Amino acid sequence: MTTNMKYKTKPLDCWQWGKELRLEAYQEFLKGHEEGKLMVLGCAATPYGMLAGLGDFVFLAGEPYGASVAADPPFSIPCMETYEAKGYSRDMCGYMRNFLGSMFLDKYYFTGGSFPKFDFAWSVRHCPAGHPKWHQIVSEYQDIPMNYIDDETMLAVDGDPEHRIDYVAGQYLDTIEWMEKVTGRTYDDEKGIEAMRTYFRNESLWGEICLLNGAIPAPLDIKSMFALMPISMLRRHEKIATDFLTTLRDEMKDRIANEIAAVATERYRMCMLTPPPWSFLKVFRYLETFGVVFVGTYVYLINSGEVKFLLDEGEAVPATVPEERPGWPEMKNREDLCRTIARWRAEHPFQSHLDIRKKEYIIIYNHWHGNAYLLLMNRGCVPMTTSMYDFQRDMQAHGIPVAMFEGNFADCRDIDETGVLDRLEAFLEGQGIQKLPSL
Amino acid sequence: MSAIEKFHDILANRHQYAMDWKERTGGKVVGGLCTYVPLEIVYAAGMLPVRVLGTHEVQDVTDRYLFPTVCPFCRDTLAQGLKGRYDYLDGLAMGRTCSHIQGTFDNWRNYISTTLVYYIWFPCHRESPRAVDCLVGEYTGFKEALEKLTGKPITDDGLDKAIELYNTNRRLMKQVYELRKNEDPPITGAEAMEMVVTSQLMDVVEHNKLLEELLEELPDRKLDRETGLRLMMIGSEMDDIEFVQMMEELGCTIVIDEHCSGSRFFWDEVVPGEDRLAAIASRYVHRWPCPAVSSNFSDRFDRVLKIAQDWNVQGALVYQQKFCDPHEFDIPLLQQMFKEHDIPTLVLEFDVTIPFGQFRTRIEAFLEMAELEVL
To answer: Stretch B323-347: mean pLDDT, rounded?
Structure first.
């Protein structure tokens, strides 16, 4: 026995169930068409529960697929080389490069079979210029229709926002008609509304789960979080996801009550803003040998989930679903549905302006009882990285130690693993954190 | 001094021009990041809209603010603000387009003291029938902000006059472009670029006068050079006159372009309407699109191909500002389209500064190969 083991630990009871649910989501693409389901491509932030109004569907979010491919270099490298051979640039979105390369190669990562053929692409333009352009390439290549919703209101701080809500809600209404036209199906408002209710509920549950990691010791480590996150990212509209996330949340509460840690040696808690370098997830396990636990990352707190930031109080609390918010109407028809989605998107932390976001970073850091931030200067995503220096200065002004490293989150050829470890070890040493003696 | 020399002179002294304008007129100057700022509204407010441009000089002031993978044009423009070269601006505005210029804008707002810094949330879903209404909402807010800055209302008469002046400006520049269809164009690509870039910097009344002078001069103008291969320049922001001059010295002439310091900027006019803001909004929503706000390839490509054919283009220089994702998405398919129409292409990637020697060699090789294909 050693004194390094501060806390007791054990695997999650629902771990295996989570893995199965995740794999099921990806495998559905093999049999989707056979089962009469629509196959739709979009980005993870799309309110794809709406699609239920058209009947059963399978939605492939490009980012988690790109991340899964990126985490497996032997599969990822040929994908990216194929993509580059088509003349596309290496400095573009890392997820997209893996995704498009996989499509060009006609190899689907999770089964090794052919890449799915979509019925159409439909997404939100949450990444300026990025995602609709990505889907444009798929649309051309697969000869499928595409449409998108322009809703990145986060960028606007000037003027009255009401006309932006009208514009976004109107696009959702138009998109329903467009979907009916391209699929030949009739949209069932009630089914669309019900699936979106589940979607909102699951977002809120995932946000709550992430917030529970403020406990000391942390009941969940970031690597496990990344493994379970696809359920809330890909199956947000499904009741089975609600069942799973409720179980996970309750298990986390139980772990907190019984001080069951994700990392038994926890003594230094780090937070992130961005996704990790997917081909280098072992960095998190390695740093556990220093007693470091990564408790969460802002991007997946608000991308796969939703929380409410109380800026004046400096707190983060679980989000309330739209219909339970004061002054929000019950969704009774498609107009209500579209307006609710537009309002919900506009108020979602995902849409926070950068200046507000800085405050949220500090709030969640305090909530998670962080000891430091780790910032990835991500060469594979412009929007995530553009203002990173600004964030760094702001964090440091708040007395938060910040470690940084540069690399690509989705291109294993573009990250210097040894260099990253050297930087992190030096940073931790500066914080008085040494590697623990062998357990 | 000829009109062409005047354009050259004003471009070389653009900050002085703007400061003199302020002194002469007592008006205010509003900088625009990107070409999605409605010039008509700014001008109707009695203000001078000027596009914020870089200088193509090595700089080290933006690394503290912008990650190095932000496009060089956006870093260069922010550098100008940080160095105080735009201290004379009374306002700065931006129309939402891409993440890179957004970074410039956010840092400008937070770290450079310009009195009014205004963000126009441009509706990027151009195909949506709701985009114009949304943009009218944005323009209403922008108009109010400008009125507050000047203390004077923007009237319908003022908007009508501005619309007419800018439409005239666009028409006159198009007339100049028409002359570039000639077998031996009377104006080089570099000179045409100076003409367009100065239209983004000058009082439109004064620019229109110079354009009228130019149109009188051009019919008799004979260039002391061979036209050589007729090329098209197509890509992201481009105001590197020195580069274009170097290129044309190698035995070619840029006869047409498709970028935001060229045709894409001025091609489309405002169709006047009772609702002035709606008329202006319609122009900016439906104008020749930047790839950053276009998610329909044919939207841009059809226009590109048409001008390539109309101007009898024999080759195309496709260039991009390094890291400019929206253009990077388009380039492979654009090249494919040119190939299908037997138009050879050369792709170059630009940074704040460019390797002149290397580019020269590549362009020479391209011209030699293209001549073999064309002649």
So the answer is: 94
Predicted confidence at residue A31, as pLDDT, reads 83
Q: In chain B, which residue's Cα lies nearest the Cα of A157?
A: B119
* Helical pair B189-199 and B241-249, crossing angle rounded to 10 deg: 160
Looking at residue A185, its amino acid is R
Question: Are the beta carbons of B66 and A159 separated by less than 8 Å?
Answer: no
Alpha carbons A177 and A181: distance in angstroms, whole number = 6
Quote ipTM for the complex.
0.94
- Locate A16 and state its tokens: 């295996």
Return residues 41-70 of B near A (CB < 8 Å). 63-67, 69-70
Residues in contact with A367: Cβ distance below 8 Å, sequence separation at least 6, in sequence order: A211, A214, A315, A316
On whether any CB of chain A is under 8 Å from the CB of B37, the answer is no
Is there a contact between B130 and A174 if contact means CB atoms under 8 Å apart? yes
- Residue A327 Cα, gap to closest chain B Cα (Å): 24
Q: Where are the alpha helices (DSSP H) in chain B?
A: 3-12, 14-25, 39-44, 72-82, 99-111, 131-150, 156-179, 189-199, 204-217, 241-249, 263-266, 276-286, 297-310, 325-340, 356-374
Question: Is residue B82 within 8 Å of residue B103, measured between CB atoms?
Answer: no
Q: For residues A419 and A431, give the distance between their C-alpha atoms in angstroms, rounded to a whole number.
A: 18
Token pair of A274 as six digits? 């961005």
What chain B residue is nearest to A168 in terms of C-alpha separation? B130
The residue assigned the tokens 């608000």 is A302
User: Cβ distance B236 to B321 under 8 Å?
Assistant: yes
C-alpha span between A236 and A245 (Å, rounded) = 10
- Mapping DSSP onto H, E and C, the string for A195-219 reads HHHHHHHHHHHHHHHHHHCCCCCCC
Three-state DSSP state, B231: strand
* Cβ within 8 Å, pair A386-B131: no
Q: Is B299 on the interface with A (CB under 8 A)?
A: no
Nearest by CB to A150, from B124, B129, B142: name it.
B124
Size of the A and B interface in Cβ pairs below 8 Å? 152
Interface of B with A in 201-230 (CB under 8 A): none
- B50-to-A90, A94, B235 alpha-carbon distances in Å: 34, 36, 21
Q: Is A295 helix (H, G, I), strand (E, B) or coil?
A: strand
The CA distance from A271 to the nearest CA of chain B, in Å, is: 21
Instruction: Spell out the residues 6+ positions from residue A416 whose beta carbon is closer than 8 angstroms to its own.
Output: A407
Is A165 in CB contact (< 8 Å) with chain B?
Answer: no
By C-alpha distance, the chain A residue nearest B335 is A87
Smallest CA-to-CA distance from B14 within B89, B122, B96, B123 is with: B89
The set of residues, in sequence order, having a beta carbon less than 8 Å from that of B134 and lying 6+ positions away, is A163, A164, A166, A167, B121, B123
| Closest residue, chain A, to B145 (C-alpha) | A159
Shortest CB distance from A156 goes to which of B121, B297, B329? Answer: B121
Could A140 and B333 be called an inter-chain contact, meaning their C-beta atoms sit closer than 8 Å? Answer: yes
Mark yes or no for CB contact B69/A133 under 8 Å: no
pLDDT in tens, chain A (439 residues): 445 778 999 999 999 999 999 988 888 887 888 899 999 999 999 999 999 999 999 999 999 999 999 999 999 999 999 999 999 999 999 999 999 999 999 999 988 889 999 999 999 987 765 678 899 999 999 999 999 999 887 777 788 889 999 999 999 999 999 999 999 999 999 999 999 999 999 999 999 999 999 999 999 999 999 999 999 999 999 999 999 999 999 999 999 999 999 999 999 999 999 999 999 999 999 999 999 999 999 999 988 899 999 999 999 999 999 999 999 999 999 999 999 999 999 999 988 888 899 999 999 999 999 999 999 999 999 888 888 999 999 999 999 999 999 999 999 999 999 999 999 999 999 999 999 987 5
Those of residues 84-103 in A touching chain B at CB distance below 8 A are 86-89, 91-93
